[in-house]
Amino acid sequence: MANRAVKIYNHKKQRDGTWTFVPVDINLDTRSVKTVPGSFKISWYDGSKKQFSKGHFPYLADAIRAGKAKQLQLQDGNGHESVDAKRVPIDVAADAYLRTTKLNGRPGTYALAEHDLREWQEWNRKNAHHAFVDEITRDDMLTYRNWVVKTGREARTAVNKTMRVNHFICQTLKLKAGDGPIKQKDAEKIIIRKATNDVEYYSDEQLEKFFAECDPRQHLIFETFLKSGCRREEIEFLYWDDLDFKAGTLHVCAKPEFDFTVKTKEERHVPLPMDLVERLRESKRHATGRLVFPTKNGGPLGNSLLVACKRIAKRAGLNCGICPTCTKQKECEHWFLHKFRATFATKCLQAGMDVATLQEILGHRDLSSTMRYLGNLKSKALRIKVDSVWNGVK
Ligand SMILES: [Zn+2]
User: How far, in Å, from the CA of 312 to the mean position of ligand 1?
Assistant: First the structure.
């Protein structure tokens, strides 16, 4: 009888320095095993002969899954067949999975499943080299996910593709959805370092349309954002005393009354273009309170700044129309206050300002924060170069 218990062992270093296989006392039907790293093997009996899995599993959950698959296989078999003959080769399983998907799903679902699975099979052939479905581990899944990102796809796409493969494995090995090599939450833990030239900023054309939709007050507020490069709170809590009309500067300092603190590097005098200084001076003649941009009751504007920014963009026909918030609530995620600061930084660099000066104006503690905007400069400079190559060639 081949129906003997499948056991899990962990390859562990003992106190005396030797390595031994320590049995792991765990029920194979245990669900939601925490991520326990180790060097696990599974064992079973082939007749009277004890067998061990060839490779090792880096996580306990992987070993449990392989153990369960092995147990199923041994229960199904008559004990006389060679063990490998009963394992499911990936290519056979993939064909079966796609056949089922075609029968059950809509055509679009099938096309997507086929595309994803074939791509993963190709990846497996070149990278992980697994032949059987039960060999696939959590690490394989994470490596695959990262590969999708590295080849230029979005993090969301990578997670979806990985979960598609996970679904395929669960179906093949008859596992419950949560018992696959990777859990959705785990797959979603992904840090995407945005490329330096990915910092979003507004184009001149967008700004022109945006400001055309502003009333005079909004115009002054967003112009101050754009031309000072200040952070939201720095404008929100700006006092008339902070403006030096003669020197044409804006003083960024702490406002404990608003719970607004600034670090040493962030306290600074920001030079403003004189035409903006004049408009601010003009606006001061009608001022009633201490804040430059107050609400009707004299308090700080708070979230209504962002709300206004998004409404103006919408009115100006500047919503992208395809981002999630555009489709859900007609508010574009590409319009936000910090982007005025990014636009300011990009504009300054494009005009030839050096990074150290810009760092001081922006109040960045470290230069690397300022350097992020250099990507935008490079792509623009590259564009000019590329265009000039073909000047005169028709
Ligand atoms: Zn949008």
Answer: 13
Range of the domain at 297: 198-388
What CATH number corresponds to the domain at position 325? 1.10.443.10
Q: Cα(383) to centroid of ligand 1, in Å?
A: 25
Asked whether residue 79 falls in the same domain as residue 97, the answer is: no
Going from the Cα of 325 to the center of ligand 1, the distance in angstroms, rounded, reads: 6
Residue 75 one-letter amino acid: Q
What separation in Å is there between the alpha carbon of 210 and the centre of ligand 1?
15
pLDDT in tens, 67-108: 888 877 776 655 444 445 557 889 889 999 999 888 887 777
**Same domain assignment for residues 357 and 218:** yes
* Torsion (CA) 62, 68, 70, 72 in degrees, nearest 10: -150
Quick check: helix, strand or coil at residue 292?
coil
pTM over 0.90: no
Return the half-sphere exposure (C-beta side, CA atoms, 13 A cut-off) of residue 221: 26
153 Cα to the center of ligand 1, angstroms: 19
Residue 328 Cα to ligand 1 midpoint, Å, equals 10
CA distance 274 to 382: 32
